[in-house]
Structures are given as structure tokens and as C-alpha cells.
Amino acid sequence: MKKLSLLFLIVLIAQGCNQKPSNETAQSETVAVAEKQSKPDGVNFVFPKNGETVNNPILVGFGVVGMEVEPAGQVKEGMGHHHIVIDGQFIAEGIIVPADSTHIHYGKGQLETQLELSPGKHTLTMQFADGVHKSYGETWSKTIEITVAEVE
Fold this sequence. Notes:
Elements (H helix, E strand, L loop, with lengths): L1 H17 L4 H16 L3 E6 L5 E2 L3 E8 L2 E2 L9 E8 L16 E3 L6 E4 L4 E10 L11 E8 L4
Parallel strand pairs: 2-9, 4-5
Antiparallel strand pairs: 1-3, 3-7, 5-6, 5-8, 8-9
């Protein structure tokens, strides 16, 4: 009897492993693949959105498609980290991203930060660069404009 019960259990497990995913699971997997395929390689602002009015501190989320984020230090193909250029533009490919008050490095591999900016319009340029801060150029940059609200 024990052998028959064990055999029955094995058959049930094998059938469960061979079942196709439910329509809901299959649809969600299809949507995830379609979303990934619909985004071109490059960096993006998860938040804030272009044209948005924001308050200090400004939460900024970094995204990247087509490369992986890792801390600065070593140069590895397909890897890098984010930088923010405040009120400036992308850094040409192969140029080291400066480190100053308007070129902020996120060399620990951060995926978000908080900024404090003066009230008014500002541009934020996200720049992706390799392990030694050498820019991947315009293709791996994204610029948005935001308005920082005045504190009342």
C-alpha cells in the first residue's frame, strides 16, 4: 500500500510540473516581455517626470535598460553607474564625468537620491558612465526639465 501511495504522489507531482501556466500567468509574462522590448536601451528617470513641478527635497529615481548598474571601481563591459548633471548637458563619450556641485556621482550603484535645488526651472541630465566614470555619451544620457516650487 505504501508503494502504491508513493507512486500516486509521484504521478501527481509530475503532472503538476508539466502543466502549462494559467492564462493569467501567461498574460503577465507576455506583458513583462513586451514592456522590456518596448523600452530602448538607455537611461531614464523613474521619477520625477519631464515637466513636473516638485518640492524639495526632490526624489530622483534612476533607471537603465541594456546595461547593469554596479559600483565604480572596475571597468566591465555592459556595466556602469549613474551621474546627475544639474543645469548642464550630457558628457561626450569617453570623457571623465567631472565631480563638482553640478556633476554628482552615484558611484556606489545607487538607484535613487534626493536633491535640494533652488526654486524655479532646472534641467537634470542623467549620465551613465563606466567604472572609472568615463561617460558612455549622449546615447546613455537623458535630460528632463523640472520646476521646483517655491516654499510658502
